[in-house]
Amino acid sequence: MKLALIIDDYLPDSTRVGAKMFHELAKEFIARGHEVTVITPSADLPQKLNVDNFEKVKVWRFKSGALKDVSKFQRAVNETMLSWKAWGAVKHLIKEDTFEGVVYYSPSIFWGGLVNKIKSRCQCPAYLVLRDMFPQWVIDAGMIKSGSAIERYFRIFEKKSYIQANRIGFMSEKNIESFQITHKGYPCEVLRNWASLAPVSLPSDYVPLRQRLSLENKVIFFYGGNIGHAQDMANLMRLARRMNQHADAHFLFVGQGDEVTLINALATEWGLTNFSYLPSVNQTEFKCILSEIDVGLFSLSAKHSSHNFPGKILGYMVQSIPILGSVNVGNDLLGIINNNNAGVIHINGEDDNLYQSALLMMEDIEFRKQLGMSANQLLEKEFSVESAAQTIEMRLEASRCV
Length: 402
Fold this sequence. Notes:
By secondary structure, the chain is an alpha/beta fold. It is built from 16 helices and 14 strands. Strand 1, helix 1 and strand 2 form a beta-alpha-beta unit.
């Protein structure tokens, strides 16, 4: 098939999970004999459209307003314009036979208009990879009020995105249950997050991060990716504060988002000597960093009513890194990780338990190795990119035959 993959963030300049997952999906589709075009925005283009190739994947980058490191209002405005700007930039390239299927990723919720245009012109089906229950999670977090004008505004675009999908893939069964409470009639299924199974090969000129940051003898607790409200980064900072008394432990956070200022302010306020922050790095650098760390961290806000599965844990699994994290009540990720001995997950707010688990991981290298090996085995069993590509491929083929 000739496939369009649509996402609001892509490589090589992103460390966000969705960008990495979609690139791996694109490469897997190509390996399976499909022709892939990624459509993605860029705020840095001098012209409306740039066509390039990244690691043998064709990419159409269209000019848009900035979606990173801007105010929430400006981001909302710029995201609202995504479909309109995308279609204006690429419509001259799209003929009736250009695409035979569309795969689009949420976040963002604002792709409905573009997907509708492509489906109408090419008479093809679409598959939505839904990874963010927006705007529900910002309502849960108290950032906007339920029933407010801004909620109603976002709900319009959310619905427009959903109705374009011939099938919607969710991270877990609990996510489908939560979704169907308020969204009836959409065809849904579980589509796990995914990652390539191949661990990173270090470039010959790579200078180890431990050497650069003087962390040669430390047990590194690492968080990489979006640093925002949905993650409740204060939760992980409280853990770093408790661990500050242990000279062998160091916390390294890499990424960007709304709570970067918060984590750095807390580190200063609490006088943390065991904490380092680095801004986002490119994908190659990020994978190299993963090869050096000891424990992979993640956190989900206790206020969530949806049951997210942070894609960052897949990067940890690829490198056989043990997982330590916190989730909201009822999240089925807790059982998946704990029951498979791939790490230790607690409910957000169980600070003492999280601390005790971190202490055990710091002190017991064999325990870390055992958890890491089990994490890699779980990846192969449940979260391979091959499985995800096969599922999406099957659904698109079936929809084309209807």
